[in-house]
Design goal:
The chain has 314 residues and is of the alpha/beta class. Helix content is 50%, strand content 18%. It has 10 helices and 8 strands. It binds uridine-5'-diphosphate (UDP) and magnesium ion.
């Protein structure tokens, strides 16, 4: 007998070329959640995989009606796929999980226990990052430093998308209409009483990460421009500083000319000033362009994702 009063846990997972992880994920999840005092569903979003992921998901769904599968019309990217999965989740609590089993489903009952204590958000904080190179670690560290300095929200270090959210928190998240979705920041922005549980992050089980250095760089830019307007201000401050320095320099030149005359023409100093200011202006324009591009995308009001077909029946 299923206890109908037991809370429904929605585990939501985006899948992009993860054929070899589909069944192990399901098996581990079932082992972790069956027997705990809760009901669960597995909401799978196939994000335009080009391998057998969808087939594997559909056959899993045929075996177990608690698995629900939604296929996006193409690859929309992880953030969009996660948004789709969150929108489809019906649970009292929702737990986003990576398909590669880097996040252990075994700690979900512990997270649910924290939720029962009254917390709306339970972050899963990784103690270790195995299987990630020095470059990834260093860039992650730098990224958190920079974005927390520049924005008004405080994104916790070493917290991925793996966390538990109450229905209220998820509904709040759904109110955020932006098309460019930086989920790490959005999770924090909604607020709510938050606590943490700790775990050791494992290596990717199979397949390879879809991230490369350029992708990470763009992800970082996305985060900073979504949650901070400091870069826009940098240009104005920089302008003020340059203007000040050039006033001082002009005074110095004036005084020197008056006292000693002007023995050499000022060609080098002019070139330096012109090139320097030209570069600075191009940089500032680039920053402004970055934001205008985002405004343009938001104004188009396109949907974040498109679901091609769903398999949810029993
Ligand atoms: N993912 C996705 N769409 C993409 C890229 C990734 O849905 O375009 C999924 C992927 O299947 C996995 C999760 O996002 O479930 C995290 O991806 P990955 O393991 O490559 O990222 P990392 O763990 O290195 O941050
Ligand atoms: Mg991963």
């Amino acid at each position: 007998m299923i206890d109908l009063i037991a809370p429904l846990v929605s585990v939501v997972v985006p899948f992009h070329n993860e054929t070899d992880n589909v069944r192990p994920l399901y098996v581990r999840l079932r082992a972790a959640l069956d027997g705990a005092d809760l009901r669960w569903e597995l909401v799978c979003v196939n994000d335009g995989s080009r391998d057998g992921t969808l087939t594997a998901l559909i056959s899993l769904q045929a075996e177990d009606a608690r698995v629900r599968v939604h296929d996006l019309s193409r690859n929309f990217g992880k953030e969009a796929a996660l948004t789709a999965a969150l929108d489809q989740a019906m649970g009292d609590v929702v737990v986003p999980l990576d398909a590669d089993l880097q996040d252990p489903p075994e700690i979900i009952p512990e997270m649910v226990a924290k939720w029962r204590e009254g917390f709306d958000v339970v972050n899963a904080v990784r103690r270790t990052r195995r299987g990630e190179g020095r470059f990834k670690r260093a860039s992650a560290f730098l990224f958190y430093r920079v974005i927390n300095r520049l924005s008004s929200i405080e994104i916790p270090h070493d917290t991925g998308d793996f966390r538990l959210m109450s229905r209220t928190a998820v509904d709040a998240l759904k109110l955020m209409p932006e098309r460019r979705r930086f989920m790490k920041g959005m999770f924090v922005w909604v607020g709510f009483p938050t606590t943490s549980v700790f775990y050791h992050r494992a290596e990717r089980r199979a397949g390879s990460t879809s991230w490369n250095a350029w992708g990470l760089w763009n992800f970082a830019l996305e985060g900073i421009t979504s949650f901070s307007q400091v870069p826009l201000r940098v240009a104005s401050y920089f302008g003020i500083v340059v203007a000040l320095i050039s006033t001082i320099y002009a005074t110095f030149l004036l005084v020197r000319t008056l006292l000693f005359g002007n023995p050499v023409s000022g060609y080098p100093s002019i070139m330096v000033a012109v090139l320097f200011l030209g570069g600075a202006q191009l940089m500032a324009l680039g920053v402004i362009g970055e934001y205008i591009g985002r405004i343009y995308e938001e104004t188009k009001q396109r949907p974040v994702y498109i679901i091609r077909r769903s398999w949810t029946g029993s």
